[in-house]
Amino acid sequence: MGLTIYHNPRCSKSRQTLALLQEAATDFTIVEYLKTPLSVDELAALQKLMAIGARDMMRRGEEIYKQLSLADESDEATLLAAMAAHPILFERPVVSNGKKAVICRPPERVQEVL
User: Fold this and answer.
1) Closest Cα to residue 4, out of 30, 36, 39?
2) pLDDT by residue (tens digit) across 60-89?
3) What three-state secondary structure class fits 113?
4) Which residues contact residue 97 at a Cβ distance below 8 angstroms, ignoring those fewer than 6 apart?
5) Domain hosting residue 18, numbered range
6) How many domains does the structure of the chain reveal?
7) Which CATH number does the domain housing residue 68 bear?
8) Is the separation of the CB atoms in 114 and 24 below 8 Å?
């Protein structure tokens, strides 16, 4: 299975990770998740590949996180549904090789899936 980067071109860390992928001369797919939001099932699959909690996949500093009182939410399905409904909550960039996925913060973490 090939590499996929879940990318936001406005994010410097995402652009840096994309550049590292390009330097590696590896074929990969770019998913601009703000234009093509991930479903709950896709988010759950990434969560499984990352072996982390849903909250760890979220941008907790976003205003919508506060508005939805997600800091008080403990249900994983509810957190995944919030990310599906509000893709800005999804932490970026994420790179997956189909067997493992990582949040590339710092961008050099991309090496873990190459």
Assistant:
1) 30
2) 999 999 999 999 999 999 999 999 999 999
3) helix
4) 1, 2, 3, 113, 114
5) 3-113
6) 1
7) 3.40.30.10
8) yes
Amino acid identity of 61?
Answer: G
DSSP secondary structure letters along 25-78:
T--EEEEETTTSPPPHHHHHHHHHHHT--GGGGB-TTSHHHHHTTGGG---HHH
In order of 35, 45, 54, 103, 113, the CA distances from 49 in angstroms are 23, 6, 12, 11, 11
pLDDT band at residue 1 under the 50/70/90 scheme: low
pLDDT tens for residues 27-38?
A: 899 999 999 999
Q: Which residues are catalytic?
A: 11
The H or E element spanning position 84 is: helix 76-85
Question: Residue 43 and residue 107: Cα distance in Å, rounded?
Answer: 20
